[in-house]
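Data deposition worksheet. Section B asks for the primary sequence of the deposited chain exactly as it was used as input, without tags or linkers unless they were present during the calculation. Section C holds the resulting structure in token form. Section D is free text for depositor observations; keep each observation to a single sentence. Incomplete worksheets are returned to the depositor.
Section A, Depositor: J.P.
Section B:
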Amino acid sequence: MFNKIIQWLISLFKKEETHSEESYEQTEEAPDETEEHNIEQNEPIIQMNNYSNIMIHVDNGHASSTPGKRSPYALHKVPPELDFYEYKFNREIASLLKSKLEEKGFKVNMVCQEVNEDVKLTTRAERANAAKKNNANMKHLFVSIHANAFGNGKEWNSARGWSAYTTKGQNNSDKFADCLYDAAEKILPQYGMTIRTNKAPDGDRDYEENFTVIYKANMPAVLTENLFFTNIEDTKFLMSDEGKNAIAEIHLQGIMSYSDKYLAK
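Section C:
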């Protein structure tokens, strides 16, 4: 009888020990779930800037009727066969940029819808100014998209690189240009492309000329010269899908950076 009692007590002890081990295992698993939950709860909340009150006025320079504005091959069949037309390129970049901007919530005004008519520069600026007046509750930026050239168009040459122009003197357009330069310097070197800067006379990177289309725009305005279509390497890049996307992305990132710093508040 005594032996049976001892065996019964031993069996009870073993059950308690087994139950304790099971409880310990469950306790060991529980912190993982709790810790994971806490990580989720403590992850930083990414605040997406609201760009819906910002209108970007996009000007695609020139038209099919503009004299020149073509690669040496397009003008004079100088090999290699890089059949580049600036008006076409400018419109492709403007269209890509429009899609990218709208995906981020910006409002976009395409300043020049015409393809064959080279709309006057003053008219382009006036269209942007009119849209600004009709949307006075919004904030506004203007960008005119171009590609650069050097020489008489009869031969390829070594001039190359990306650059941006503002009007003369210091103003908000210089801040906008800085943001575009930051984006260009981040993106273009990945593809072996170069950046052109002009530190004179005010120490910043952009070139300064009172080009009518930006001079007449009543808002921060920048004209971009997106590489040279008279340079073989630049033109190859500009004609590639990769190159077109990179150029559009420079404009998007520059616009977003300026908006984040100065507008989206």
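Section D:
The mean pLDDT is 85.
The longest helix spans residues 2-42.
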